[in-house]
Design a protein that fits this description.
Blueprint: H1 15-18, H2 22-37, H3 55-59
């Protein structure tokens, strides 16, 4: 689920692209950072198995 909110390079997407409120964006950032520390998400994920689905491209 968290991969939807990451770019192909592994960065967290900004609010204007994710369309979530400020409170949820902060929560999302904390969750992504925690998952990175737990080694569930790579810090830089350009490998094919870490690509995010094109969820936001359909809604744009």
């Amino acid at each position: 689920l968290l991969y939807r909110f990451l770019t192909d390079g592994g960065k967290i997407m900004p609010r204007r692209k994710t369309f979530v409120c400020a409170k949820k964006q902060r929560e999302l950032a904390r969750c992504v950072k925690r998952a990175r520390q737990m080694n569930l998400i790579p810090y830089m994920g350009k490998l094919p198995q870490f690509r995010r689905p094109d969820f936001f491209a359909e809604n744009a």
